[in-house]
Specification:
single chain; alpha+beta; two-stranded antiparallel sheet; 6 helices; 7 strands; about 15% strand
Length: about 230
């Protein structure tokens, strides 16, 4: 239970940091659309009120989400959640019902992996409820991007099809390489791949610096202990 609580707390904190990063970005730069990894809001968290720390973190997460969406609305900024391994069955159940399919139940990722061709997108789906909670103006759609099924979530009061076209167009330019882009003689890469590579390099550098600092601190502590051996206090 302790390990589960720590894991859940980590997830809640990561969501809070993600919302804070989006808020800082909207305040400091002139952006029109933000793609952020993961669902816009994790409705699946169900906490007992007795878990006071987790409950407080959950409320804080909700507070930052509402603040983020308020700023986005005021500045006319579209925030899009992108999930690369969706586990929902919402789309499959609709198709199953409409076409009267007699097939084993699978999640949307597995179903659309078989159905969508590369570059295909589904129609926007209005999500009215999630985990029993009522939602307003919440839409989602799927895209087959290089064989991967991505789910896009967004909240809008505008025409959801027009907003989807904007998202799909920008997402395609991020996922697929442009023949006009070159990067120091290497093969053309999408912006998304380049960003991931740079983030990976930065993470390795940060890890090396952290390890070096810890080693230096350990050596200094060891020398200090050796220096004061036998000294009576």
């Amino acid at each position: 239970l302790l390990m589960f609580g720590r894991k859940l707390a980590t997830r809640l904190l990561s969501q809070i940091q993600r919302y804070r990063a989006c808020i800082d970005l909207m305040k400091s730069t002139d952006v029109r659309i933000i793609f952020t990894r993961g669902t816009l809001f994790p409705h699946g968290f169900v906490l007992a009120k007795e878990c006071r720390v987790l409950y407080a973190l959950h409320n804080k997460m909700r507070e930052y989400f509402d603040k983020m969406m308020k700023i986005a609305h005021e500045k006319d900024i579209l925030i899009v959640g992108v999930s690369d391994l969706p586990r929902d069955m919402r789309f499959f159940r609709i198709i199953e019902d409409k076409l009267k399919l007699q097939v084993p139940h699978v999640n949307d990722y597995v179903f659309l992996k078989l159905v969508l061709e590369e570059g295909d997108i589904t129609t926007p789906l209005l999500v009215e409820k999630e985990k029993g909670k009522k939602l307003e103006n919440w839409y989602e759609f799927y895209m087959n991007a290089r064989g991967d099924i991505l789910k896009f979530e967004y909240i809008t009061k505008e025409d959801p099809l027009e907003v989807q076209r904007k998202i799909a167009s920008l997402a395609s330019s991020l996922v697929y390489p442009s023949p006009l882009r070159r990067d120091r003689g290497r093969h053309n890469l999408s912006i998304l791949i380049e960003a991931r590579m740079k983030a990976h390099d930065y993470l390795n550098t940060l890890r090396d610096l952290t390890h070096a600092a810890l080693r230096a601190a350990s050596i200094s502590l060891s020398e200090l202990i050796d220096k004061h051996k036998g000294v009576k206090i």
